[in-house]
Amino acid sequence: MDNAKRAEVLVQALPYIQKYAGKIIVVKFGGSSMVSEELCGAVMGDITLLTQVGLRMVLVHGGGPDINAMLKRVNKQSEFVNGLRVTDDETMEIAQMVLCGKINKNLVSQLHQHGGRALGLSGIDGHMIEAVQKDPALGHVGEIVKVDPQVILDALDHGYIPIISTIATDTEGHSLNINADTAAAAIGVALHAESVIALTDTPGILRDKDDENTLISRIYLDEAPALMADGVISGGMIPKIECACKAIEKGVRRMFIIDGRVKHSILIELLTDEGMGTMFRLR
């Protein structure tokens, strides 16, 4: 790319930078983009760049593969019910150690290496996320009751990029594991976010799951039930879409499901005419 082309790209991005300046964008980080060093570095670079041009970025992460690896090291079998990990006392201890410790602090360090100022948090800090036990059969799996965003806002106001692991507590201080998609959507609502972006291992919502050329670039909220009934939205994508719908119903303007396997997918979505992935919004 020659210098003239580089300048043209920057000029084309300007209206989007102006549109999003000062707005809060919540990014749910997971999947291949999290376990690949190259893709993770691209995400950290994107978030740092967007912060430098005036967006208020918040990163929410999970860490299922790392939890699985640690459980395997201690010879503990994982058990799942309807896609949710059964979380007994020992598994909860390991999940909290991995999510709040290893993963969270590694991400803070990586963002610093890309020139950002990160602050590692969990749903426990500032009593950010309060939850109740979702189902006794699942153990320490939580369902969010409320989100207090003050600690996140304090971090943003002081120039930090909050990086949040999804461990919550109940009213008695017991730790509960929260699905990262659910947590990102709830945090977006509490922050009155402009957008929530979910990085996934798919291009977005495909009308034909075997044909990436059938990507649906925009879905209005009232269209989602029919797409689920027709099987276009199915399997593990259903809870993501349910989170998206709830977030939009409660005030988030847009939710994007984009391919985290593509380098700089966040920049492509936010700062270009074409964008990528699937956008959910009110009609």
Structural class: alpha/beta
CATH superfamily descriptor: Acetylglutamate kinase-like
Count structural domains: 1
* Strand arrangement, major sheet: 5-8-2-1-11-13-14-12
Strand content: 15-25%
CATH topology annotation: Carbamate kinase
Mean pLDDT score, rounded?
Answer: 92
Q: Span between N and C termini?
A: 38 Å
Give the oligomeric state.
single chain
Which percent range fits the helix content?
40-55%
| Shape call | globular
Tally of individual helices: 10
Low-pLDDT segments: none
Order of helices and strands: HEHHEHEEHEEEHEEEHEEHHEHE
Biggest sheet character: 8 strands, mixed
The CATH architecture can be named as: 3-Layer(aba) Sandwich
How many E strands? Answer: 14
Radius of gyration: 18 Å
Reading off the top of the CATH hierarchy, the class is best stated as Alpha Beta
Description of the structure:
This protein is of the alpha/beta class and 283 residues long. It has a single domain, classed as Carbamate kinase, CATH 3.40.1160.10. It has ten helices and 14 strands. It has helices spanning 3-20, 32-35, 37-52, 64-73, 89-113, 150-157, 180-190, 224-229, 237-249, 265-271; strands spanning 24-29, 56-61, 80-81, 84-85, 118-122, 129-133, 142-147, 161-165, 167-169, 175-177, 195-200, 218-220, 254-259, 278-281. The strands form four sheets. It has an eight-stranded mixed sheet, sandwiched between helices. A two-stranded antiparallel sheet has the order 3-4. A two-stranded antiparallel ribbon has the order 6-7. A hairpin with an 8-residue loop joins strand 6 and strand 7 (142-147). The radius of gyration is 18 Å and the shape is globular. The model has no long low-confidence stretch (mean pLDDT 92).
